[in-house]
Automatic annotation (TrEMBL):
Phylogenetic placement of the source organism: Bacteria, Bacillati, Bacillota, Bacilli, Bacillales
InterPro entries: Hexapep, Hexapeptide_acetyltransf, Trimer_LpxA-like_sf
Listed name of the protein: Acyltransferase
Pfam families reported in the protein's UniProt record: Hexapep
Transmembrane segments: none
């Protein structure tokens, strides 16, 4: 099975800059907007999942997919020169600052400042890309 999305429809939700690399297996779920390096040079590793929203889990008697979304007015913004390694999940209304590195298999649920190195579940800042 394949899905075709017209360029016009895709353009309303996802915006990409120049010289960005997206490796195999990535998934993007975006009721609102995902912005990936409008400037340039963003690298996404294999199996990266990006979503600007999530489901609520309040009623254990209902399937998760039938419950409401936590937010439908957000966006994910990934700044210029950022590297997102393989297996990373970015969920929610998130901004990742330019020049940052998100280490493999991390879960990003909060904003990451520019030039930061973040890792873990949940992702936390462990260093700076400007450190020598």
């Amino acid at each position: 099975m394949s899905l075709h999305i017209s360029p016009e429809t895709a353009a309303k939700f996802m915006r990409f800059g120049q010289n960005n690399a997206i490796h195999a297996g990535g998934q993007f779920y975006h009721p609102e907007e995902i912005v990936i390096g409008l400037e340039k040079n963003v690298k996404l590793g294999r199996r990266v999942f990006i979503s600007d929203t999530d489901h609520v889990y309040q009623d254990i008697g209902k399937p998760i997919l039938t419950q409401d979304l936590t937010e439908t007015t957000g966006r994910v913004w990934i700044g210029e020169g950022t590297i997102i390694e393989h297996g990373v999940v970015i969920s929610g209304n998130i901004s990742i600052g330019p020049g940052s590195l998100i280490r493999a298999n991390s879960l990003v649920e909060q904003d990451i400042p520019a030039n930061s190195i973040a890792e873990g579940i949940p992702a936390r800042i462990v260093g700076s890309c400007t450190d020598k």
